[in-house]
Amino acid sequence: MSTTQSKPTMAGLLAHVQALISGTEKHIPNGSFTIGNVAYTTASLVQVFQNLIAAITALDAAHVALKDAIAALKATKAAVVPIMAAYRRIVQGMYAGATQTLADFGIAPPKARKPRTSQENAAAAAKAKSTRKARGTTSRKQKLAVKGDVTGVIVTPVTDPSVAEPTQGTPPPAPPVQAAPPVLTKPTA
User: Fold this and answer.
1) pTM over cut 0.70
2) In terms of CB atoms within 10 Å, which end of the chain has fewer, N or C?
3) DSSP string, the chain
């Protein structure tokens, strides 16, 4: 049965090195070792391991500092980029015709609009006509010609019983104004 070893993490490596140091100091306090044709005492071997711990700690601190720097950069960019964009638009407006001055600001001059050819105009018109037909849109005059057809609605006049017969010499009161029922229209396809 074989076991696979995964790549150790920095925390795992740090724990392993610290365990090697404590085990060496506890069980072999006055030892002498030859590793790769180099002679080490317990103190010099512990110092090599301490150097690794210092490097790991410095790397962790650098990672934290990097994360803080990235967060500061994002916050600063969020505040400054809109200001830069507005300033760029101001400069482009001030020096729209002066390409050399815009180049001094690092801004490319606006591109000249290329006129469309007659073929492109014809293609655009055909596409617009096809889109209007597909959507069922009509012109203003055609919309006015569309009338709704409402059937089955009976209009009954409303009479006000409080209105008395007019007396002689006074004009009769105007009949009450009643809103007409809404006319429903349905566009034809």
Assistant:
1) no
2) N
3) ---PPPPPPHHHHHHHHHHHHHHHHHH-TT-EEEETTEEEEHHHHHHHHHHHHHHHHHHHHHHHHHHHHHHHHHHHHHHHHHHHHHHHHHHHHHTSS-HHHHHHTT-PPPPPPPPPPHHHHHHHHHHHHHHHHHHT---HHHHHH------S--------TTPPPPPTTSPPPPPPP-PPPPPP-----
